[in-house]
UniProtKB/TrEMBL annotation:
GO molecular function, one term: deoxyribose-phosphate aldolase activity
Name recorded for this polypeptide: Deoxyribose-phosphate aldolase
SUPFAM superfamilies xref list: Aldolase
Similarity section: Belongs to the DeoC/FbaB aldolase family. DeoC type 2 subfamily.
Presence of the UniProt keyword Nucleotide-binding in the record: no
Record's GO cellular component terms: cytoplasm
Keyword terms of this UniProt record: Lyase, Schiff base
Ranges annotated as spanning the membrane: none
Enzyme class, first EC level, given as a word: lyase
Listed EC numbers: 4.1.2.4
Region feature (Disordered): 18-41
Gene Ontology annotations of biological process type: carbohydrate catabolic process; deoxyribonucleotide catabolic process
Reactions that this protein is recorded to catalyse: 2-deoxy-D-ribose 5-phosphate = D-glyceraldehyde 3-phosphate + acetaldehyde
Length: 346
């Protein structure tokens, strides 16, 4: 690898900070923002909101063109994206062996030669590993001592149509197995009926069942159909105590899109302005390329600011994305195209 392509920022910069597009260092915030305390339901915060769909589409369509990220700056942003990934396996044929392989990749998401060439003092790690409740135990054991948390989907994922007591018991089971993050699924029927009290009570009960575990509320935006429904469901979930709002289960016909994500992060911004509480955001489903990762990071930076590039406020639900990020980093270092076959996910 040529001397000129060695990553110029060193470990403290690359692991903890993201460069601006012009190369200047931006301040970093890695503090834990704590739990969302929630608040009483206030339907007037969203029922009076009117969303201009064409303006949303237009704004989302220009986001990725507003910042030019090339060379070492693009590599730094991709490293930050890598460290925001909830590395996920949610397949019907998951096994403890598959989960152990995924956890091994979570511990070492980049090849050692790439880490050395980037000038990093330590191996970067993904933000979390996300599995089904029955796979939490094997994941916790495989990640012991790594500092990487285990997230578990729950509440009848992906449909969320089990009776509420069973959904709450599934949360408690996952927590008892060692999950420190819970990704719950809302009941879409409450949104369609605009039964906001029922949705609020459901999410609040799930938050209570999660205990000390941070809770991400999956809205399944592809099922919700309208931007108005997405905004309203986002606000109700945050009021009920969700620490993150998440786009999708990954199982809907339409998963994370930039326009829907824009509506959700605007809801986060509105909630912050009214309450002072910072809520995290997680796009999931369909994010497969390094270009996708950059687009969502730009969304976070443009709409919410620098703090939302850190893993405590931004996650990406993905599996194959990690391999493409590694491929682009190798291409940056060598100046040559890199085949996807050289970068296994797990």
């Amino acid at each position: 690898m040529s001397e000129e392509r060695v990553f110029p920022f060193g470990a403290p910069f690359a692991i903890g900070r993201v460069p601006a597009a012009d190369g200047a260092e931006e301040s970093t915030s890695s503090q834990d923002h704590g739990r969302n305390p929630g608040m009483p339901l206030k339907t007037d915060w969203f029922e009076e909101m009117r969303i201009n769909a064409s303006a949303v589409e237009r704004r989302a369509g220009t986001l990725a063109t507003r910042r030019g990220l090339k060379k070492q700056w693009q590599a730094a942003w991709l490293l930050k994206a890598l460290m925001s990934i909830d590395l996920t396996t949610l397949a019907g044929d998951d096994t403890p062996a598959r989960v152990r392989r995924l956890c091994a990749k979570a511990r070492r998401p980049l090849r050692t030669d790439l880490v050395e060439a980037l000038g990093l003092a330590e191996m970067p790690k993904v933000a979390a590993v996300c599995v089904y409740p029955t796979m939490v135990g094997p994941a916790v054991k495989a990640l012991d001592g790594s500092g990487i948390p285990v997230a578990s989907v729950a509440t009848g994922f992906p449909a969320g149509l089990m009776p509420l007591p069973l959904r709450l018991e599934e949360i408690r089971y996952a927590v008892s197995q060692g999950a420190s993050e819970i990704d719950i699924v809302i009941t879409r029927a409450h949104v369609f009926a605009q039964d906001w009290q029922a949705l609020y009570d459901e999410v609040a009960a799930m938050r209570e069942a999660s205990g000390a575990a941070h809770m991400k509320a999956i809205l399944a935006t592809g099922d919700l159909k309208t931007f108005q429904n997405v905004y309203s469901a986002s606000m109700v979930a945050m009021m009920a105590g969700a620490d993150f709002i998440k786009t999708s289960t990954g199982k809907e016909d339409v998963n994370a899109t930039l326009p829907v994500s824009l509506v959700m992060v605007r809801a986060i911004r509105d909630y912050l302005e009214r309450t002072g509480v910072k809520i995290g955001f997680k796009p999931a489903g369909g994010l497969k390329t390094a270009k996708d990762a950059l687009a969502w990071q730009i969304l976070m930076k443009e709409e919410l600011g620098r703090d939302w590039l850190e893993r405590d406020l931004f996650r990406i639900g993905a599996s194959s994305l990690l391999g493409d990020i590694e491929r682009h980093i190798e291409q940056f270092l060598t100046g040559r195209p890199s085949s996807a076959m050289r970068h296994a996910v797990g």
